[in-house]
Amino acid sequence: MTRPFARYTALRLLAFVASYGLLLLVGLRGLVAIAAALLISSLLSLSLLRRQRDEVAAALAARRGDRDAEQARLRSMLDDGPSRDDDGSGGAVGPPDGPPRG
Questions:
Q1: At 25, is the secondary structure helix, strand, or coil?
Q2: Of the listed ranges 23-37, 44-58, 81-95, the one predicted with least confidence
Q3: d(CA 3, CA 67)
Q4: 44, 22, 45, 50: which is closest to 34 by C-alpha?
Q5: How far apart (Å, rounded) are the C-alpha atoms in residues 8 and 45?
Q6: What's CA 47's distance to the chain center, in Å?
Q7: Average of pLDDT values for 42-67?
Q8: Which pLDDT does position 91 carry in this prediction?
Q9: What percent of the chain has pLDDT over 70?
Q10: Which of 19, 31, 38, 54 has the highest Cβ tally under 10 A?
Q11: 3-state secondary structure of 33
Q12: Phi and psi angles of residue 91, each rounded to the nearest 5 degrees, phi first
């Protein structure tokens, strides 16, 4: 998931920097240049980075599917109750009668 997301983010940043640089060359400065560069880079990435955006969406969907499958597996383990190896201690180590007195 990291690779498509990193590539998409890098390309978006490149579009912003290129737009901002062009606007500086034209003579725009300050917040107006930043706002215009954000608008231009957003429109560019919307149209030019469709494939990369789809890759990010597919990676997110796959990650969500893996997480849902793991959650279902863990829920089924909980629903099955304690296994034969479980002594009911819940993984606790130490004397069963509580803290030492002293």
A1: helix
A2: 81-95
A3: 19
A4: 22
A5: 9
A6: 23
A7: 91
A8: 57
A9: 78
A10: 19
A11: helix
A12: 85, 5
Give the tokens for residue 9: 């983010």
The whole-number average pLDDT for the span 66-84 is: 82
Q: How far apart are CA 60 and CA 23, in angstroms?
A: 34
Q: What is the rounded distance in angstroms from the CA atom of residue 5 to the CA atom of residue 3?
A: 5
What are the residue ranges spanned by the domains of the chain?
A: 2-79
Question: Which is higher by pLDDT, 97 or 34?
Answer: 34
Please count the other Cβ atoms lying within 10 Å of the Cβ belonging to residue 41.
20
Q: How many CB atoms lie within 10 A of CB 8?
A: 20
Residue 6 in contact with residue 52, Cβ under 8 Å? no
As a whole number of angstroms, the distance between CA 80 and CA 15 comes to: 53
- Specify the amino acid at residue 70: E
